[in-house]
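Annual report, structural modelling task.

Input specification for the zinc ion complex:
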Amino acid sequence: MSTPKCPICGRPAAPRPGNRAFPFCSDRCKLIDLGKWLGEEYRIPGPRAGDGADAPARPEEREDDEP
Ligand SMILES: [Zn+2]
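The model returned the following structure:
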């Protein structure tokens, strides 16, 4: 098994027993990743419009509700 790389800095990330920040190499990189999430730099790969959900796929049409 190869050592996984930290997705933030690319350095080898130590395995979990001794690295509570896994899969990051350190708490610092873990916090950087968290900051990216909070800043919405990352897109959450969740369900998209047209994926079976009945959420409005075309927000523009909602303007029809206005008089
Ligand atoms: Zn790192």
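Helices lie at 27-38.
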